[in-house]
Write a structure and sequence with these properties.
Elements lengths: L1 H32 L13 H8 L7 H11 L5 H10 L5 H10 L6 H4 L5 H9 L1 H31 L9 E6 L2 E6 L4 E2 L2 E2 L2 H4 L14 E2 L3 E2 L13 E4 L4 E4 L2 E2 L34
Antiparallel strand pairs: 1-2, 3-6, 4-5, 7-8, 8-9
Helix pairs in contact: 2-8, 3-8, 4-7
Length: about 280
């Protein structure tokens, strides 16, 4: 009887030793399988990398460019917003603004401000890696991003591609190039090939056709709650992004809790998002 008890005791000791031996390996396996959540600030991009990053948007009119830069810092919201904008692209002006309110859209105001521009949101959604990298650069290197925009504009202007036309006024002021809409409330989205407009023109190439413009998009007072009421743009010498005439100061360290001081603050609708408008694909 004592022998049986001793055998049971030895068996128990063996199990305990085996369990203790496996415990570190099990814990290590659990840690490896957990998702890695990093709060480390992204590595700074070099000027050539920033030039390439902003090349596809550097020739956007200043008000639209300011909205794109700020919206990119909320890159996770862009794919869903792009889908909504595409499905409701038949809505324009006040009807679109009313639909945004009625559908209880929950995205940040900087994203809502781009809903009148489905082609821009689609471009950002189709290349989420680029959009996230742009957003991180705005959060960590906003002055460098704006310098890169100016370098690309200077290059396009120097080669003769960027000039005043019926869609935009190209203004050089204090060494900085502004691209402003001819009509303050009507914006045209430019379309161009960065490999063309930022390189010397080939002999016989028609400079005037290198930058094309989409249909005019009217931004009225109904969009005031999403950054368009008093306009958006830049104070280039001080590297300031303006949204609703207020400096945009969202950076890496305050990115979680930042609330922009809009002149007409937008109140996030209570309750879940709804769909009260006819969808079109």
């Amino acid at each position: 009887m004592l022998l049986n008890a001793f055998d049971h005791f030895l068996g128990w000791i063996g199990k305990m030793l085996f369990t203790c031996a496996l415990l570190p390996a099990c814990l290590a396996l659990m840690l490896v399988s957990l998702p890695v959540i990093s709060s480390a600030q992204p590595v700074a991009l070099t000027p050539p990398q920033l030039d390439q990053l902003v090349s596809r948007i550097a020739l956007y009119p200043d008000p639209l460019l300011a909205q794109v830069l700020t919206a990119s810092t909320y890159w996770t919201e862009i794919p869903e917003a792009a889908t909504w904008a595409d499905q409701h692209s038949y809505l324009k002006g006040d009807a679109l603004a009313q639909a945004i309110q009625a559908d209880h859209l929950q995205w940040d105001p900087s994203i809502l401000g781009l809903l009148p521009f489905p082609s821009v949101l689609d471009m950002m959604a189709r290349d989420p890696g680029w959009t996230e990298q742009l957003g991180n650069a705005v959060l960590t290197q906003d002055a460098d991003v704006m310098d890169a925009v100016q370098r690309m504009r200077q290059r396009a202007r120097g080669y003769g591609y960027l000039a005043t036309n019926g869609y935009v006024n190209v203004v050089s002021d204090g060494g900085y190039i502004q691209i402003l809409p001819v009509e303050p409330n009507v914006l045209y989205v430019p379309s161009y090939d960065p490999l063309v407009v930022f390189a010397p023109p080939r002999p016989g190439f028609a400079l005037a056709g290198a930058i094309r413009f989409g249909p005019g998009i009217t931004i009225g007072a109904a969009f005031g709650g999403w950054g368009w009421w008093l306009g958006s743009g830049f104070i280039w010498p001080s590297h300031t992004i303006l949204i609703d005439r207020r400096p945009w100061t969202r950076v890496w360290v305050n990115r979680v809790g930042y609330v922009h001081p809009y002149v007409r603050p937008w109140v996030r609708p209570v309750g879940p998002r709804v769909e009260v408008h006819r969808l079109r694909r």
